[in-house]
Amino acid sequence: MCGIVGYIGRHQAAPIILEGLERLEYRGYDSAGMAVFNGEKIQITKSIGRLKVLEELTHGGSTMQGVVGIGHTRWATHGVPSNENAHPHFNAEETITVVHNGIIENYLPLKEKMISKGYTFVSDTDTEVLAHLIDYYYKGNPLEAITKVMHRVQGSYALGILFADHPDEIFAVRKDSPLIVGQNEDGCFIASDVPAILKYTRKVYFIENQEVVRLRADHMHFYTVDEEEITKEAVTIDWDADAAEKGGYEHFMLKEMYEQPKTVTDTLMPRIKDNDIVIEELGMTDEEIQAIRKIHIVACGSAYHTGVTAKYIIEGIARIPVEVDVASEFRYRNPILEQGDMIVVISQSGETADTLAALRGTQKMGHKVLGIVNVVGSSIAREADNVMYTWAGPEIAVATTKAYSAQLIALYLLAMKFGKARGTLQAPAFCNMLEDLKRLPAQIEMLLSNKNRIQRFANRYIGAKDVFFIGRGIDYAISLEGSLKLKEISYIHSEAYAAGELKHGTISLIEQGTLVAAVATQDALFQKTLSNMVEVKARGAFVLAVTNEGNTEIEKAADYVIYIPRTNPYFTNSLAIIPLQLFGYYVAVGKGCDVDKPRNLAKSVTVE
Ligand code: F6R
Predict the structure, then answer these.
(1) Probe ligand 1: pick from 326, 400, 481, 599, max atoms within 8 Å of CB?
(2) Average model confidence (pLDDT) for the chain?
């Protein structure tokens, strides 16, 4: 969960690397460093803290002169954030240096072996072992040394490597951590993710597992781990470069919340044709859909929360049993998968280590996997048997908003398609639901326009200690996400409970003034949730309610009400989540938190 960038070409490398790292700070930001070949030797500058510190230290890169370099922004795994543990890491002679994203699982035995051979270590990282191992195998041929190391290390890695005696080359390799390379007329680039180099080139190559790249200023060569040269096809990235910029908003998170109407439209509309739902990338006939025995949904964090929502919807509409698992549990629990089971993994980044491992494990058991993925060309997108993209564009803020909304849409579409194919969703209801789906973007826009009211309410809660979110059915799934949004960016403790479960223990935590956010959008469960609200209010809670327009009865039990427009009950998550995202955001802003980069978190969780 770190970011790496490299450049070799006609321009000064350091400013380009700093700019690229800034775009990758969402991957980690506890320390940063750069290595540049200055004509004589490799010069390294690194520092604990945000990239800003490195920028200041190097005067925007001007203290590191040279046209070839690599850089790194770190999210600590092995060893605390410190100058010593920051990358790049050197060999003893300072002639080989490495930046690394990933984890070397067998670094301890390797480290012991290297120590027994007289190598000394200055950091606690797993990465330093790579610099020494490459040194150990290096006899003048970088490719040979690198591939030898690749055969000996276990774990995940994307690496950028510089050799002082090959100053006109950068080497990069990948296994299970993302890596792209790009080229323009002035040079070649390596990066963990496209936004880092989008300003310079749209022509990129996705590096596959166990591949090596040798970059020179004017060309690149690709090799297998057995040193055989291979050819690769470039991919042209057609993202709008502005999509990766803040565009006048105070934070990426706010900008991305405001992009939700577009995200929903982009994910929805290309799949509605002639009043029907067409998901070509699903690769399933109606007969195959009819034969589904069970669906297993596997994901992490917010993506898991969309899976919880989907369980209620798919079971409700298509009458197919659905199991939803957190990927880190699924991969180790020896799940029972049978003939006719469908496996769906959901991931914004497409790089989440546990979700990727769950996908691979499932495939090993002989089952096909559908990936619902946002990042085009990511590992999950490439390895899933079928991919349904959520067209949310690049999401930079660590806390997901627009990708979450797009995932919901993809899941609604699947549920409706399955319901129609299996005859459990009849034509009139199907058509009404399609109309409700098409109205969602405008309704989300309307909810976003109420941001000032939510901001005023949020300001009252910046000192809150505990917050509880309650709801039943889909409202419980919404509560899970509302609670996560608040806690991850504001650092206020919050929990989500199925509303009926609160009285089985947690209600003892309710004190005078404790905020309880009750979500009550499911008409069939409205009275039940209302009773739970009365219970907490009677114990001193301040009750914030989110409910459908017209449900004014709720005012009996709530202290503050946010009404959402009417839609099909299965789609209320898309609307109710908007005020809850805004609430979390404004509480965090009010507390002065670093909203886009909350402490201890990273956007792309490539470690398990
Ligand atoms: C929370 C959040 C995370 C991610 C989770 C999975 O706001 O963003 O909980 O949802 O880390 O990430 P992806 O979707 O990239 O697999």
Answers:
(1) 400
(2) 94
Residue nearest to atom 11 of ligand 1 (CA): 301
- Determine the distance separating the centroid of ligand 1 and the alpha carbon of 224, expressed in angstroms: 32
Residue-wise pLDDT for 532-575, tens only, equals 999 999 999 999 999 999 999 999 999 999 999 999 999 999 99
* 3-state SS class at 85: coil
Answer for the pair 155, 102: CB distance below 8 angstroms, yes or no. yes
DSSP element (H, E) containing 90: strand 89-90
The closest alpha carbon to 330, from 368, 308, 356, 305, belongs to 356
For residue 304, give the nearest of 334, 351, 267, 346 by alpha carbon: 346
374 in Cβ contact with 380 (< 8 Å)? no
Check: CB of residue 389 under 8 Å from CB of residue 282: no
- Give the residue, by CA position, lying nearest to ligand 1 atom 3: 301
Report the separation in Å between the CA atom of 533 and the middle of ligand 1, taken as the mean of its atom positions. 30
Q: pLDDT of 341-400, one tens digit each? A: 999 999 999 999 999 999 999 999 999 999 999 987 788 998 999 999 998 888 889 999
Q: Is 307 in the pocket of ligand 1 (CB under 6 A)?
A: no
- Asked if residue 496 lies in contact with residue 483, where contact means CB atoms within 8 angstroms, the answer is yes
593 is catalytic: no
Contact indicator for 6, 69 with CB cutoff of 8 Å: yes
Measured in Å, residue 348 CA sits from the centre of ligand 1 at: 7
The catalytic residue among 148, 175, 485, 603 is 603
Residue 79 has pLDDT above 90, yes or no: no
- For residue 167, say if its preceding peptide bond is cis, omega within 30 degrees of 0: no
Quick one: pLDDT at residue 557? 94
With a CB cutoff of 8 Å and minimum separation 6, the contacts of 478 are 309, 471, 519, 521, 546, 572, 573, 576, 577, 580
Mean pLDDT of 328-338: 93
Pairing outcome for strands 42-48 and 3-9: unpaired
Nearest CA to ligand 1 atom 5: 301
Residue from 582, 586, 265 nearest 450 by CA: 582
Q: What is the pLDDT of residue 488?
A: 97
A 10 A CB-CB count for 435 gives: 11
Q: How much is the pLDDT for 421?
A: 98
Q: Is the shortest distance between the CB of 605 and ligand 1 below 6 Å?
A: yes
Joined together, the tokens standing for residue 513 give 């003034």
Q: pLDDT at position 312, please?
A: 98
Q: pLDDT tens digits, residue range 490-514?
A: 999 999 999 999 889 888 889 999 9
Whether 255 and 392 have beta carbons less than 8 Å apart is answered as no
Decide: 107 and 89 in contact? Cβ < 8 Å. no
**Global pTM value:** 0.76
Active site residue 2: yes
* pLDDT of 608 over the 80 cut: no
Quote the CA–CA distance of 387 and 368 in Å, as a whole number. Answer: 11
480 Cα–ligand 1 center, Å: 13
Q: How far from the centroid of its chain's Cα atoms is residue 270's Cα?
A: 24
User: At residue 112, does pLDDT exceed 80?
Assistant: yes
Distances in Å between the Cα of 113 and the Cα atoms of 117, 119, 136 are 6, 9, 11
Residue with tokens 């390895």: 383
Distance, in Å, from the CA atom of 535 to the CA atom of 526, rounded to the nearest integer, reads 14
Is the per-residue pLDDT at 489 higher than 70?
yes
